[in-house]
Amino acid sequence: MKRHNNNFEEIITELKRQVPLLQKDELNSQDLIQYMKGAIVNGLNPEDTMKDIILLHYWCGNEEQALKELEDSIKIISKWEERLTKDFGGVDAWEKQVRNLMNRDILTNNIDKQLNKFGLEKLKDYGLGIG
Fold first, then answer.
1. Beta-carbon neighbour count of residue 51 at 10 Å?
2. What φ, ψ does residue 80 adopt, rounded to 5°?
3. How far apart are the C-alpha atoms of 98 and 92, rounded to whole Å?
4. Which of 71, 84, 100, 113 is 20 to 30 A removed from 55 (C-alpha atoms)?
5. Would you give the distance in Å from CA 70 to the centre of its chain?
6. Which residues face 28 on adjacent strands?
7. Are 33 and 21 in contact (CB under 8 A)?
8. Of the candidates 90, 38, 30, which has an alpha carbon nearest to the alpha carbon of residue 60?
9. CB–CB of 11/4 below 8 Å?
10. What is the 3-state secondary structure (H, E, C) of the chain?
């Protein structure tokens, strides 16, 4: 914690170097999705990132693209070995969960819960530009 207090500017500079997306004045959905797709390759739980991409498309009103990403993700996950999918119940359970979340009321409720959980509910939402 002391490093964070003493080297805050250095940490910010390093984070911006690692994630150039943070330097943009305006963030749009396509920028974020491209960044997230890079995380699929390097991430620990690519199924979660795929789900997030689908839900971001859905949230931004790109329902057709959300369904295309869902179908593409199902094809990818279907090729994984069972040991890689058992933690989330396999491709069928994953698809069911994603389709359940593709409901505006459920998605809004989940977002609100996460904002409250992390104390972010008072932050002003400037929206995410659809790119």
1. 20
2. -75, 150
3. 10
4. 84
5. 14
6. 129
7. no
8. 30
9. yes
10. CHHHHHCHHHHHHHHHHHCHHHHCCCCEHHHHHHHHHHHHHHCCCHHHHHHHHHHHHHHCCCHHHHHHHHHHHHHHHHCCCHHHHHHHCHHHHHHHHHHHHCCHHHHHHHHHHHHHHCCCCCCCCCCCECC
φ, ψ for residue 28, nearest 5 deg? -115, 170
Q: Which two tokens stand for residue 94?
A: 């994953």
Q: What pLDDT score does 1 carry?
A: 46
- Residues 35, 23: Cα–Cα separation, whole Å: 13
Find the mean pLDDT for residues 86-104: 96
pLDDT at position 126 over 80? no
The pLDDT of residue 129: 55
Structure tokens at 87: 């933690």
